[in-house]
Design brief:
This protein has about 230 residues and is α/β, with parallel strands linked by helices. The protein has helices spanning about 1-10, 45-55, 80-85, 90-95, 120, 125-140, 175-180, 190-200; strands spanning about 20-25, 40, 60, 70, 110-115, 140-145, 210-215, 215-220. Strands 3-1-5-6-8-7 form a six-stranded mixed beta sheet. Strands 2-4 form a two-stranded parallel ribbon. The longest helix is centred in the N-terminal third of the chain and has 12 residues, at about 45-55.
């Protein structure tokens, strides 16, 4: 994760005012037909938020439905999770995420898709988020994602109709990693690897390895689930 944060810092264009970064969180809270809850993965939001906000970046949250999104991976033995979970400003931001129709992409130097299994249900088909991502990408902004976050990149098309990730190496939660946590049969929605290949991209990371790719699209895969 720290490598992805460094990429965001190094890649974000210089802005005259405080640069803004848009964090995208899932609104989906049910893990298929398992009866288990899901949502965005907390540490994949808290860690980059804590670091980037400390460097002077203004951060806004958006989710498909707006308002308070479901959260997964609430591990408060993680000191950064604990710190921000006790921070009323951060918690209020989480409770009041923007809707996509409230976002002006011209205000953002970067867009970052946090992970969590919920992303596989409500990010790939969201045309408004795809349009925001495309606009930031086309003005040479940074497009970044971690773990299951690349679900938000899969259906983003450029003006010529091609997929944004076509020909790109994209990091994310692979099919073999889904099998390792017993979720390969929950839904085809969980197959980040297959969906990425369908859009002309590829997953370069090995099994549960840390991997960062930097090009037109920045991405990071963590060595634990999210």
């Amino acid at each position: 994760m720290r490598f992805l944060i460094a990429l965001l810092l190094l890649s974000t264009p210089a802005w005259p005012d405080s640069p803004r970064i848009l964090f995208v969180l899932t609104s989906h809270g049910q893990l298929g037909d398992t009866g288990r809850p899901t949502g965005f993965y907390l540490s994949e939001v808290t860690h980059p938020y804590e670091y980037l906000s400390g460097k002077g970046y203004a951060i806004d949250f958006v989710s498909p439905q707006g308002g308070e999104p479901p959260v997964d991976g609430v591990k408060l033995d993680d000191p950064i999770n604990q710190k921000l979970y006790d921070d009323p400003v951060f918690r209020q931001k989480l409770k009041t995420t923007l809707r996509p129709d409230q976002v002006d992409p011209d205000q953002y130097a970067a867009i970052f898709f946090a992970g969590g299994h919920g992303t596989m249900w409500d990010l790939p088909g969201n045309e408004q988020l795809a349009a925001i991502t495309r606009a930031i990408y086309l003005k040479d902004g940074v497009v970044a994602a971690v773990c299951h976050g690349p679900a938000g990149l899969l259906n983003v098309r450029l003006p010529d109709g091609s997929f944004m990730i076509a020909g790109q190496a994209v990091t994310g939660f692979s099919n073999s990693e889904e099998r390792s946590v017993g979720l390969e049969n929950v839904s085809l929605r969980l197959s980040v690897g297959s969906w990425t290949a369908g859009a002309g991209g590829r997953l370069p990371a090995g099994y549960f390895l840390n991997q960062v790719r930097y090009g037109s699209v920045a991405g990071c895969q963590r060595s634990n689930q999210g």
